[in-house]
Amino acid sequence: MLYLIGLGLGDEKDITLRGLEAVKKCEKVYMEAYTSLLSFGLSTDGLSTLEKLYGKPITVADREMVEEKVDSVLSEATSFDVAFLVVGDPFGATTHTDLVVRAKELGVEVKVIHNASVMNAVGICGLQLYRYGETISIPFFTDTWKPDSFYEKIQRNRELGLHTLCLLDIKVKEPTWESLCRGKKLYEPPRFMTINTAIEQLLEIEQNCGDRGESAYNEDTNCVGLARLGSEDQKIVAGTMRQLLAVDFGAPLHCLVIAGTTHPIEEEMLNMYKLKGV
Amino acid sequence: MLYLIGLGLGDEKDITLRGLEAVKKCEKVYMEAYTSLLSFGLSTDGLSTLEKLYGKPITVADREMVEEKVDSVLSEATSFDVAFLVVGDPFGATTHTDLVVRAKELGVEVKVIHNASVMNAVGICGLQLYRYGETISIPFFTDTWKPDSFYEKIQRNRELGLHTLCLLDIKVKEPTWESLCRGKKLYEPPRFMTINTAIEQLLEIEQNCGDRGESAYNEDTNCVGLARLGSEDQKIVAGTMRQLLAVDFGAPLHCLVIAGTTHPIEEEMLNMYKLKGV
């Protein structure tokens, strides 16, 4: 049996009782590294905290490993119970459908244990979940690569009065340019996009697209920035893009919501997060 | 302090360690009755199972109580720790923003403990969460009241190729017609909408709106029905509206997803849920 277990958003205490029970009976425990490196601080003490709680070692599975060794993990799951831990929910922002489909092909039974993910916990900002349109992802721009396909999605959401959840880029285990040239495996340090960078990029794109006579948002558009959502030290600030540009949201992970039209009850809640004295 | 604690979707084991820790230190524990009556089967043993786990009594708070006595609950929270338990996530399908706003007004600190809700757990069907448009709610039709404002939302989502999550009506503690006339408090037994009823109503509305030359979907449109999502005995079936009409999904709660355009990886996952031999 393969248990696909959501860990929630904060720390080791956000696993459910059902999830903990499953981990404890599994012979082998893998943990997806993609977001966990940043949100659980696995480079430092995060991993050992989890190992202590579970009473067994965890193998951190980076993307390479998941892609290259998925069949060997799944073949283990044919003979004993294996846990695959995922930050948030197994089908949240980073989905694991490919793992489930492959398991099915190999005849491995899969049990999913859900948890909170950014996709629902973002509701805490007061903008109601059922009034969100399509979710977008904002990638890091480079000097020569500035994809803007998210722009028209935001525009569509805004025209319909809907809110837009923006997931911000995470770069984990990106091979360095040098390593690509030399065939050696060297990786860039992990990077995550801040709310500030996201807004800068959004405004840059708006300027370009605005020239074409469109306008999806501007510096005065209301947004909510959410950092470390679900953690003890989460930071949520509501304000215009211009205002949020000046806020230091601190450590990762960050995400951003661009508000659509707001209802009175939503506004009351947003007011709680507004910058004071601005 | 007021702890607003999500219980997740299945049973008592779906609370998080953080949530359980908070409940245990609270002097008073309330539980929202709106969805819990149905999903936790509180009329039978569900409540006592929870009380045993928490080691303290739970006061079930129906909507009337939440509306009428919210200030007394909140005033308790100024002098000791109070837990307010919510099925799913506190800001999921049924939001509790009004409670948070009122707490803030009274100077009560609020701590939110997230969990899975239908809004993210629905990702298990394989249709990826970031490709959903606006969520809709389908109310019970009566002979004289057939609101169809959800129709154009589905239509918009489908035109954009997006999936639509349909939340289905729940009627809990509805006063009887007799009680309204006599001024006595008598309530209808709880009712929940099945996937079958939802599809019947959707097709009825399509027929009416189709006459106006529009068409958002039809009997051959692909959908996924999800019953008791997140429970041990959840039932997920993918198929056309016509096919799902004939499926017995069993006990509540039910929800329905109307698929937009699907990607290959989504289709692979949907195939796992398709009816065999149809």
TrEMBL record, chains A, B:
Residues reported to bind S-adenosyl-L-methionine: L9, D89, G92, S117, V118, L168, L229, H254
Natural source organism: Populus alba x Populus x berolinensis
Family per record: Belongs to the diphthine synthase family.
Protein name from the UniProt record: diphthine methyl ester synthase
Domain Tetrapyrrole methylase: 1-244
InterPro entries: 4pyrrol_Mease, 4pyrrol_Methylase_sf, 4pyrrole_Mease_sub1, 4pyrrole_Mease_sub2, Dphthn_synthase
Reactions that this protein is recorded to catalyse: 2-[(3S)-amino-3-carboxypropyl]-L-histidyl-[translation elongation factor 2] + 4 S-adenosyl-L-methionine = diphthine methyl ester-[translation elongation factor 2] + 4 S-adenosyl-L-homocysteine + 3 H(+)
First-level EC class: transferase
Lineage, opening ranks: Eukaryota, Viridiplantae, Streptophyta, Embryophyta, Tracheophyta
Biochemical pathway: Protein modification; peptidyl-diphthamide biosynthesis
One GO BP: protein histidyl modification to diphthamide
Chain's role: S-adenosyl-L-methionine-dependent methyltransferase that catalyzes four methylations of the modified target histidine residue in translation elongation factor 2 (EF-2), to form an intermediate called diphthine methyl ester. The four successive methylation reactions represent the second step of diphthamide biosynthesis.
Domain of life: Eukaryota
Record-linked CDD domains: DHP5_DphB
Assigned EC number: 2.1.1.314
Keywords: Methyltransferase, S-adenosyl-L-methionine, Transferase
One example GO MF annotation: diphthine methyl ester synthase activity
